[in-house]
Amino acid sequence: MNIKKTFLLLAAIALFIGCKSAQNTSSKTSDALNELVSIMQGHYSSEKQSTEDKEYYNISLRMTPIWKEKGNYLFVEQAIFDKQDKPYRVRVYKVTQKSENEFMSEIYTLKNEKDWIGKWANPEAYNKLTDADLELKQGCEVVLKRVEKNKFIGATGDKTCPSELRGASFANSIVTVTQNEILSWDQGFDKEGKQVWGATKGGYRFIKMKE
Length: 211
Hints:
The protein has 2 helices and 13 strands, in the order αβαββββββββββββ. The protein is an alpha+beta fold. A 10-stranded antiparallel barrel has the order 1-2-3-4-5-7-8-10-11-13. It is globular.
């Protein structure tokens, strides 16, 4: 075999191996992203924590998958458990992958959030929701790292998420997602760094409910 043919054969083998490697990486990447989105969705309650420590409320956290044809989006409602028809937080999360073990959950508010409250009972209704109805909370995205199977830990950037709630200047969130539980610690701080809202002892422990 002459040198030219040998070179072409080696190049073809290298290209084949590279393509297979890229396909395997892409497959693993998709599996990890699907794992995160799958364990995030569902209806959660902090009831157990609220009975153990009266400083915590019984909170309902509901995350419903929407727009499956566009990517990984979750419609999120958070409310006092006995007042789920009046959630105090309505958001859309867009979950994407940054690298093999790093993921990002971007946070969007809704311009007419009252129009969408409770639609989880009929998820097809979210098909009428459009990009124009959403507004990105710049700097409030949560970056999560996969530390083991069905376990992701992350946080917002340091002082990157603006907040005006109760005199706050910025907000921080620390999150751990596991198969049946989400630990979420949201805190607001004023410009001097004094905490003005949020739990002080630690995050809210949301346990996935069986429905």
